[in-house]
Structure formats: C-alpha cells, structure tokens
Write a structure and sequence with these properties.
Chains A, B: It catalyses: L-glutamate 5-semialdehyde + phosphate + NADP(+) = L-glutamyl 5-phosphate + NADPH + H(+). The structure is a homodimer. By secondary structure, the first copy, chain A, is an alpha/beta fold. Chain A contains 14 helices and 16 strands. In chain A, the strands form 4 sheets. Chain A has a 7-stranded parallel β-sheet with strand order 10-9-11-8-7-12-13. The N and C termini of chain A lie far apart (61 Å).
Chain lengths: 426, 426
C-alpha cells in the first residue's frame, strides 16, 4: 500500500475536474456487479484498520486545530476518532457488505397489449453529493453506502476534519482501485472550503442528488441554496400523546424510553401531550419516572400542579429539539387540540399516541402528517436498523422520493427498460 | 349554480392567505374517501360543459388580449378553447374517475421481532403547486389529478390565460363544494403575476411539491429558483441508434414512427445514429421513408452521401429539441461512439437501439442513463397512457422520486404506520 499521507492524487484537479472525474467513474460503478462492490467495501474495512496510525495522527492534527479555533466540546467529540471508533467504522462497512444490493431490482413491469415488455428497475443515482460537518465517520459511512448502491460520491466534510478526511478518502480510493473500480468514484472537496460547498450545491449535470447531514442550519442552507435535488434529513421535534384511555404502564414505559434511552438523537421525544381527563391519573407516575432519570420538566399551566419542580414551558421550548434530558409537557382538551399543537410545532418526523381508543388511534394515524406515526410504541423505533434495513442513510423528513428511515434502495433511482420486436405506435 | 363570472370568493385574499387556505383544505382532501373525490371530479366534468358559454367568453377575452400583446400563433393555439376541446377536457376528467385511487395503498410492511407492525402506505403530498404557461387545459388536468390523489393544488397558469383560468377554477371550486369538499383546495394565483410565481417557488411549509409544465426556459427557471422540492418534467432530445445488425423493416418503421407520428411531442426522435457498417444498407430506405413524410434531414459528413438533399448538421442541431419534422443523422464507428454522443446531447428522456445483437442490446439498456431505454421499439411508447397508467402527470427527466412517465402514484408520498402494544426500544 502506498503512503497514506500527503496530497491526494486528485489534489491538483480543479473542483470542476473532480466532479467530472466522479461523473465518469460513476458509469463504471453503475454497472459493477455486487461481488466487485463488496470486494471494495471489504478493502475499505481492512484499510481503515491497517491505516489506523495515519488516520489517528491526522485526526490529532484536526483536533489540535479545532481546539485552537475554539470548537465546542460537542463538535470536538464528534470530530474525535479512537481505535475503538475505527473498529466500529470498519464493522459498519462490513455490515453493508451483507446487505442486499438494490441495483437491478425489478420494481414493477408488464406486457403491453402489443407485446412490448416494460420493466422498471432500480439503478444508481449516479453521483451522490454529501455535505456534513466535522464528522469523519460520515465520510466512511456515506462512501460505503454509495459504493454498495452503485453510486459515486463527492464529499464535503467540513474544513475542521480536512486532515482526517483526506486520509480516509485515500483509504477508500485505494480500496476501490484494489477491487478494480475507479478510484475517482469517491472524491473529497474539503480543500475548496465554503466555495466548494456552494459549487457542489449547483453542480447540476454532475451531481444527481445531494444529502446534507448535520445541524438544522446546515440543512436549511443546503435546501434553500441547492439547485441539485436534495434529500432533507431533518431534525425531530417529536411528540407523544397520552390519550384519555392510555394504559398507565405503557405510558410510563414509552415516555421514559422515548426521552431517556438516547436523548441526543432525532427520534427522542421532545413534547409530551396529555389529555386533560388523563392528567391526574397519568402525569404523577410518568413525571416521577422521568424525574428519576434526571429529566428536566418544562410544564404548561395545567401540567404544573403535577410537576412542582418543573420550569414553565415556553413557545420556544415547544419548537426546540433539545437533544438533552429536557421535555415539554402540555395538557390538552382533546385529540383535536393535540393534533393542532403537533401541526404547529412538529418537524413531521415521528409522533406516537398512547391510547386504547380505536377511533382515536385511527384518526391520529390518518391525520397526523409525519414521516412515521405510531400507536402504543416508543418513538425510538423510527430507525433504519429497527425497521430491518440493516443500515440507515438517514431519516428523511421531506415528502419527495423518500420519507422516514432510508435504506439502500432510497439511494437509487429507477429506469424503464422497454423490449420490443419492431413495434410502433398506432 | 351561482354566477361564474366576476371575482372569485378568494380574490380579496393575499397570496399567503390563499396558500394557507389550500394547506388547511388539504387536510380534508387527504382523508376524503374515493367516492367523494370521484363525485367532485364528475361535478367538474359536468361543470365544464354546463359553463361552456362563460368559459369560451373568458377565453375570447384572453385571446383578444393575447393577439394585442403579440403572442405567437403557437401560444395562441394552446390558449384556445373550443366546444370540442371542452368536451375533451370533460372526458379526460371522467377518465381520471376510473383510475385506481393511490391513497392508502400499502407499499410494504412487516412485523418486527418484538411484535411491532410497520406498514408503509401511500399518502397525498398535501399541496401540489403547478407553474405552466397559457394552457387552460392544464388547469383542469392538474386539478383533477391532484383531487384524485388527495392533494390540494395551487395553480399559476400564466397571465395570458387569466380570464379563462378564473372561470375554470370557479367551476372546480363549485364542484368541490358540491361534493362536500373544501372549495379552497384548488386555488389560482394568476392575479399575482410573476411575483406570485416567485412566492410559490419558495413557499416551504405550504407547498409540498412543485411541478413546472412548459418550455425548457420555464422549467429551468423553476428548478433553479425553487426552494420547494420540484419534479422536473423535461424536454426530450431523443435518440434512435441503428446498430450494425438492425433489421431494415424495423429500422424504417421505428424511425418513421418516432419522427413523424407526432413530431411536436417530447418522445419524438431528434437524432438518428447509424453504425457505419449499416449506413449503406439502412440509410437509403430510412431516409427515403422520412423524405416521403416531408422530414428535413440534417446530416453529418458521413451521412451526407446518402442524403443528397440534406442540410449539414450542426452541434446546435444535436442539442435541440426541434418539435418539428427535422431530424439529425450521424454515422458512428461503434456502440461506444453512439453512447458517447448520447451522453453528450441527450436530455435523458428516451433512447432506443434497433439491433439483433444481444450483447449490444444489453449494453445499451444497462449503460445508457435515460428515464426510458428501449430495444427495437419506437420512442413514442414513452407515455403514461401507453404504459397503462390511464393518465399522465408528465414525464419526469429527473432521478429523484419519479423517473419517466408519471401516473397518479407519483403524486403521492408515503408514511410509515407503526402499531405497537407498549413496546419500547431495548
């Protein structure tokens, strides 16, 4: 294996030339068989472990620069790689090896009355662009998912991770070459800074779809500035509604699980709505369970009597994805008021109703306009792994193309194959 | 039925208020059953015929204004309604009544190991925006497709058709009300001019998807300016390749059909590529058949000897969707040169190879990156009606969400329904 440090072979290329190289390489990726793509993925997993020292040295450099630039502790933590995290990354890549290749899957098809046969099959997008912030694990993750689904990838991972990403991209490029695939299929454009991100967002004809991953601000910037089609993976202001007939044990278990099992992720609950006829019965045990886990309660006027240690909730709380052990609690008159609140504040990610009333359950499932709507289950189930997808590209909160947890098929488009024997249109 | 002329009930609303009204109305549309939606559609078909006089008067006014403003003959023709065209519009709406309602269709689903049941079902987008130019038939067409798929619609049909569209929208709104659906579900914003179109393109949170229909310039403007997700229905620079082994009768029939059966549509062929080893055998009969139909041949150097009356082809010809009885003809060395030409000039709409060589057919189908790829069939088959969709929303040339002919299901998103019994995540 050649040296992993120093400039990449593509370093001298302009941004446009790199996009063009990725586009050209995407043609080989698109027709590569699954065995070859899996060979590249295994080589990436091996390469990440074999190059641990180089990767960790580069990461040290990024971390030192980050500390100097005053990055927050949270950002520094996400930027940090360790031997254990590298092992985790390699394992994740090997898991993608085991997933079904979506390319070539026949989605539907028929024979037309004149004998022409039409089949809609899954094909790669071509070139997937990704814009994310200082998370080197995403570099490996997106590249591996792109390769498995037959796509080239152009990565803009943020200047804070530039040294780490450069080594990781070299590992990926060498792995591609070792499997007989074009190294150009995965490119980094970190060295072009913000200008590079801006060009990526408008690279129509070179980039087929753009996936932003990161903060709400980043996603908002990409969605509003990009002329390339975007798949929005959004924030989760997630609601659980305790209906009048909710079982107490389910209410306690689900609210606790949805809030505290992993508060820093998008499918954790942010606001608990409680039917007023159930408040007296359910709020004491539910809030007590939350308090025992160290959760801070932000209560509205009608919930405050049940939560003497709570802080008053604000409109801003209702609109915030806390990603922490905070929960807003509001008492509502009925299902309609609950759904009105959800319409106003939800990011349309996941909402769950806890109820034993069939009509209310069906109304909630039908009328709440979110990617995932649940009855009597924890919102933490909104997850590609839990849904059985094996790996997750992200959770889409838009309605076009993909909605909810995205697996490998969501990284593909389709094309229609038409087979005739001389037919013409009458 | 109240008067059909004069200002609409929504005339006094601001653009923002109309978008908000459509959004609110979309909630009722989303849960309306098929019978009710079909009742509204039948009322539209009846209403269009019952209001013929008012519609045609309004149309006369638009046409008079258009002539004064110097609209081209083509634009004036598209703007023109006649009793026969109104009958055609009513018939098209009744055809949509007969189509399967996509809303509620279960796309996939499973039981998770813990007993939680997940189902992905089709749901309406919510509010569909449409931007088009001076074609009042699109007003009825898009509104009917939107209603059937449970969506509200906000229509920007161009100031040239403002009088006609106002009457048509009133017919639609009265039909909605007569079926017990909110009249606000279909709105026109023609009276806000270009500013209205600009606002529609950035109405995130109010408009879920935007469909531009019209010229390449219009589509380009929407795609680059919109922050709302767009489904691009693009132009067709469509290719037919005559491979070395192409049957002469199929070559003649398919090229003639693809060019002359309806030259003004996007699936008509624009460029004929011919393998050099087949040029002498195939070009004389093919070009002779085209000449007999009045087609103007634009030939490259190597094709010119077979087409003495041809004009020399230019690079601009190769890139142009003529929509007329013009065809570019180019002789290529082999399949690779043909696919290279297609990569350079195709709009990725439809390409067809005429061949008896199995390997070449499979390479062409696999490697040509277009919405529809064909072997031994006329490109004119790229059509929702021909594909058996019953009606066509348009032909998508983008890769996100929908690609190729779009039917009613392409006007829907999905949502995940999760049914548990108290499960939490471990």
């Amino acid at each position: 294996m050649s040296s992993l440090t120093g400039a990449l072979p593509t370093a001298a290329l302009s941004l446009h030339e790199r996009l063009a190289a990725a586009k050209t390489a995407s043609r080989d990726l698109a027709i590569a068989d699954t065995d070859r793509k899996n060979r590249a993925l295994r080589a990436i997993a091996d390469g990440v472990l074999a190059a641990s020292d180089d990767i960790l040295s580069a990461n040290e450099l990024d971390l030192a620069n980050g500390r100097e630039d005053g990055l927050t502790t949270g950002l520094l933590d996400r930027l940090t790689l360790t031997p254990a995290r590298l092992q985790g990354l390699a394992d994740a890549v090997l898991q993608i090896v085991g997933l079904t290749d979506p390319v070539g899957e026949a989605v539907r098809g028929s024979s037309l009355p004149n004998g022409v046969k039409i089949t809609q099959v899954r094909v790669p997008f071509g070139v997937v662009g990704a814009i994310y912030e200082a998370r080197p694990n995403v570099t490996i993750d997106i590249a591996a998912l792109a390769i498995k689904s037959g796509n080239a990838a152009v990565l803009r991972g943020g200047s804070a991770a530039i040294e780490t990403n450069r080594v990781l991209v070299r590992v990926i490029q060498q792995a591609l070459a070792s499997a007989g695939l074009p190294a150009d299929a995965v490119q980094t454009i970190d060295d072009f800074g913000r200008e590079g991100a801006a060009e990526l967002m408008t690279a129509r004809g070179f980039v087929d779809v753009l996936i932003p991953r990161g903060s709400a601000d980043l996603i908002q910037a990409v969605v509003t500035q990009s002329t390339v089609p975007v798949i929005e993976t959004g924030a989760g202001v997630v609601h659980v509604l305790l209906d009048e007939s909710a079982r107490e044990d389910w209410a306690v278990d689900i609210v606790r699980n949805a809030k505290v099992q992993r508060p820093s992720v998008c499918n954790a609950v942010e606001t608990l709505l409680v039917h007023r006829a159930a408040a007296e019965r359910l709020l004491p045990p539910v809030l007590s369970a939350l308090r025992a886990e160290g959760v801070t309660i932000h209560a509205d006027e009608r919930a405050l009597p049940f939560a003497p240690d709570a802080v008053p909730v604000t409109d801003e709380d209702y609109a915030t994805e806390h990603m922490s052990l905070d929960i807003s609690v509001k008492v509502v008159d009925d299902l309609d008021e609950a759904m009105e609140h959800i319409r106003r504040y939800s990011t349309q990610h996941t909402e769950s109703i806890i109820t034993n009333d069939l009509q209310n359950a069906e109304r909630f499932l039908a009328e709440v306009d979110s990617a995932v709507v649940m009855v009597n289950a924890s919102t933490r189930f909104t997850d590609g792994g839990e849904f059985g997808f094996g790996a997750e590209v992200g959770i889409s909160t838009q309605k076009l193309h993909a909605r909810g947890p995205m697996g490998l098929p969501e990284l593909t488009s389709t094309k229609w194959i038409v087979r005739g024997s001389g037919q013409v249109r009458a």
